[in-house]
Design brief:
46% of the residues lie in helices and 11% in strands. By secondary structure, the protein is mainly alpha-helical. It has a domain at 11-27 and 61-145: GMP Synthetase, Chain A, domain 3 (2-Layer Sandwich). It is elongated and about 80 Å long. The protein starts with 10 loop residues before the first helix and ends in a 14-residue tail after the last strand.
Amino acid sequence: MSGEEPKPKTGIELAREALAQARADAAKRQSVPGQRRRKTGGAKPVRDPSRGGGPQPFGAGIKKLLSERGWEEKAAVGGVFGNWPRVVGPRLAEHTRPEAFENGELTVACDSPAWAQQVRLLAAQLVRRLNEELGDGTVTRVRVVGPQTQRPAGQWRVR
């Protein structure tokens, strides 16, 4: 053991993990995006009557896809990560960034101890605002982390 904690994941790393999970789910269903299935020459599949056969609005199609695959929450959280300044306001967004979201807990990183304290004081309001965006009960807790700084060893340091 080296004693070092793993670095928290950034928003882009979380998005990449979500994409990898979506690809893995598609591979299990044997329908990898971008690849066509080979025709086997058997009977034609029966058309899904609920589709109606006609075009549908893009937004409605995406919502249906997200719902069918169980990706609604991941997509909503990704939207919050991508629109952080709009969700929390530009001033707070200058000094904070969302780090991770797991089991209802959002981890927010701050650039100074003072901003970390301020966000801790605003945690209840932040949970309420995030649940307005994501749906009631999605975010249950905000965990705030300050900057990770190491003080260099010096003659006044206690060992």
